[in-house]
Amino acid sequence: MVKHVKVFATGGTIAGIAGSAIAADYKAGQIGIDEYLEQVGGLGLDAELSGRQIANIDSANIGPAVWNEFHPAIVAALGDDQCDGVIVTHGTDTLEETAFLLDLTLPPNKPVVVVGAMRPADAVGYDGLRNFANAVRVASDPDAAGRGVLVVMGDRVFAARDVRKVRTRGTDAFRGFPRESVALVTPASLDWFGAPWRTDPSAQFGWCDDLPEVPILYAYAGMEPDALACMVGEKTRGIVLAGMGEGNMPEAVRQELVQLRRGGVIVVRASRADEGLVDREPEDDANGFVAARALNPQKARILLQLLVANGITDPAAVQSAFDGR
Ligand code: SIN
Hints:
Blueprint: E1 3-11, H1 33-41, E2 47-57, H2 64-78, E3 85-89, H3 95-105, E4 112-115, H4 128-139, E5 149-153, E6 156-159, E7 163-165, E8 174-176, E9 183-186, E10 189-192, E11 216-218, H5 226-229, E12 238-243, H6 251-262, E13 266-271, H7 282-287, E14 290-291, H8 297-309, H9 315-323
Parallel strand pairs: 1-2, 1-3, 3-4, 4-5, 11-12, 12-13, 13-14
Antiparallel strand pairs: 5-6, 6-9, 7-8, 9-10
Helix pairs in contact: 3-8
Bound molecules: succinic acid.
């Protein structure tokens, strides 16, 4: 039976135009979803597609305003008997944040796939159509359910929790950490590595349309504690440290963070290293800090925002959310 997939478009390079097949520069978010689906129609994909334009912007500008608009729309699609799967088209720069936010706040009952492209639609070697065709293949597969939100880039499928953009150019810009890809896909084939891992029927966290303030503090050699003063305000509920190595920081900064923790701000130690696993260390108990484990700073921030929004602020409970899958 032909599957019905709903496509929510937000812009990005996948909908970008350069004006020339070889131009160096381009504008993201230029092609509307109706025009895009017309082009896709020519591929003869084995699915019925319907589209909704949520935004058509560079993903550097995506944040709560766009999230608040598409989240209820996706929840409705997942509850609709006529819908077998969902695709979100998105710029690649913040794709991992949106994908992880959706992963934490959507039920895993049907496939939800986020897809982007590294080259604009009129560039020679445009990767967007291939990525999109692959995304349709994944979103149409009932076996994609129970794996949370998935990201398709190239011929690889990543779990939202693992995926990260690791290169600024080229079509192999994404990696998974600590798990690499969870499946390989082409428009005609899909090979999963292992069984679905989400057995719970509902979302892990309730949606919040007013996420709390959680800045990311980037650590560097010679950093002074006054770097914190300009980023922490009355509304700050948590801080994610993009620390050196395994989430380290200069001693004076650590002391300042301990003071903030005593004032109720949750402190999560992540790493500025690309593939940084940050484990708990003995001082974390005394300091009241949390270790981000395999989450990079921008994903640790999303998780911490949702935890605070859902009233989970005890460091042990926060730590166990970071320890989870
Ligand atoms: C964007 O993130 O919107 C621009 C870059 C891209 O999509 O690759």
